[in-house]
């Protein structure tokens, strides 16, 4: 699979930056290798971006027509799902706004807008953040409409809206160290929010560039410490660094990272973005890079999107005890990683997982 993994990253970089193929040494590939590459791109939820990269291949290196058509159909489905997501988001923001509630859009379609072709990024659900007062008002609106809500382990609330899963969060940043919660709130107040214009003309609040980069970095770390993380979230981070670079002050970002105790993690993340996703060093939040990014790459290949392809991973365990045991085993695999790159946050993430306070 080494050849297939290398080819996937080559095509991913071409699709992510709309650039030429910089390394053709892993081509041509056999029909079996192309099939594995297609399956791997789906596991990593980067099918559409990799398909875009295929457009830059010389014709004699393309996969067989049958697979190419299948890949094209999958990419078309991704684009249609994104259009459905955009429409649902617009209606939902309109509903909340007219009801006097101002949500903050986290990740998702806000990050998709930073891509060259937003519709090729695979979407998941709609994530909103509300402060405590606004959260109570949002709950009231949900119940008035008869929507069936479900409270998650981390106290977030999910429900279905127009065929799309929506999640309400009580915290903006995925930061679990209780001794840093006050600092996280200070950052939120200091940097605040920007606005993004939706297709229908409505504005929705999104985290400011500094908060946006912090949010994504912490989100990736949380999942890397647990079951795992996939390439889509790393692509999101790369595009965000690239597009938001001029709006982030390097020394300030480094200062915040040190205050959070995340400097080693951030250097590892920087190394991955540069080495494997082709982000120019000049576009990093600040230019400090680990010498080796393979520990993060190993986690990504091991489990795919949110670790769903780790052997034995079950979304719904038979019992609470079994779920905690599975989670403990997942974290145990990454314990050296955790205490090397983010020891304090790693400890508190693990504590939250075992207490059932984290999904």
Distance between the termini: 31 Å
Gyration radius over CA: 20 Å
Share of residues in helices? 40-55%
Record the strand order, biggest sheet.
1-2-5-4-3
Strand content: 5-15%
Structural class: alpha+beta
How is the biggest beta sheet arranged?
Answer: 5 strands, mixed
Overall form: globular
**Which series of helices and strands comes N to C?**
HHHHEHEHEEEHEEHHHHHHHH
Outline the low-pLDDT stretches.
Answer: none
Mean pLDDT: 90
Number-wise, the strands total 7
Helix segment count?
Answer: 15
Overview of the structural elements:
- There is one protein chain.
- A hairpin with a 2-residue loop joins strand 4 and strand 5.
- The chain has 15 helices and seven strands.
- The strands form two sheets. Strands 1-2-5-4-3 form a five-stranded mixed beta sheet.
- With 359 residues, the chain is of the alpha+beta class.
- Helix 1 crosses helix 3 and helix 14 packs across helix 15.
- The mean pLDDT is 90.
Secondary structure layout:
Layout lengths: L1 H16 L13 H13 L3 H8 L10 H34 L5 E3 L1 H5 L13 E4 L2 H13 L5 E2 L5 E5 L2 E6 L11 H11 L1 E5 L5 E5 L1 H17 L5 H14 L5 H10 L3 H13 L18 H10 L16 H14 L1 H7 L1 H12 L5
Parallel strand pairs: 2-5
Antiparallel strand pairs: 1-2, 3-4, 4-5, 6-7
Helix pairs in contact: 1-2, 1-3, 8-9, 14-15
């Amino acid at each position: 699979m080494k050849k297939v993994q290398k080819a996937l990253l080559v095509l991913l970089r071409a699709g992510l930056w709309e650039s030429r193929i910089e390394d053709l040494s892993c081509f041509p590939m056999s029909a079996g290798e192309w099939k594995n590459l297609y399956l791997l791109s789906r596991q990593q939820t980067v099918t559409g971006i990799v398909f875009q990269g295929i457009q830059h291949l010389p014709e004699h290196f393309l996969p067989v027509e049958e697979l190419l058509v299948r890949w094209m159909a999958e990419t078309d489905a991704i684009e249609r799902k994104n259009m459905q997501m955009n429409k649902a988001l617009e209606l939902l923001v309109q509903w909340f706004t007219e009801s006097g509630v101002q949500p903050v859009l986290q990740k998702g379609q806000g990050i998709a807008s930073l891509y060259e072709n937003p519709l090729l990024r695979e979407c998941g659900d709609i994530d909103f953040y509300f402060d405590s007062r606004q959260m109570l008002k949002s709950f009231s609106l949900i119940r008035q409409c008869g929507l069936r809500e479900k409270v998650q382990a981390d106290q977030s609330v999910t429900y279905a809206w127009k065929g799309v899963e929506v999640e309400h969060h009580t915290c903006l940043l995925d930061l679990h160290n209780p001794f840093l919660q006050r600092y996280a709130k200070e950052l939120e107040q200091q940097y605040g929010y920007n606005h993004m214009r939706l297709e229908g003309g409505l504005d929705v609040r999104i985290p400011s560039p500094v908060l946006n980069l912090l949010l994504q970095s912490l989100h990736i770390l949380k999942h890397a410490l647990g079951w795992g993380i996939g390439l889509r979230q790393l692509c999101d981070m790369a595009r965000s660094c690239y597009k938001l670079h001029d709006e982030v002050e390097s020394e300030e970002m480094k200062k915040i990272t040190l205050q959070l105790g995340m400097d080693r993690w951030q250097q590892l993340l920087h190394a991955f973005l540069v080495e494997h996703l082709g982000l120019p060093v000049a576009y990093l939040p600040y230019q400090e890079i680990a010498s080796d990014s393979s520990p993060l790459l190993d986690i990504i290949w091991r489990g795919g999107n949110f670790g769903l392809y780790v052997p034995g991973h079950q979304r719904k365990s038979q019992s609470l005890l079994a779920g905690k045991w599975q989670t403990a085993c997942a974290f145990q695999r990454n314990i050296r990683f955790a205490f090397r790159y983010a020891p304090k946050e790693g400890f508190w993430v693990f504590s939250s997982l075992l207490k059932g306070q984290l999904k």
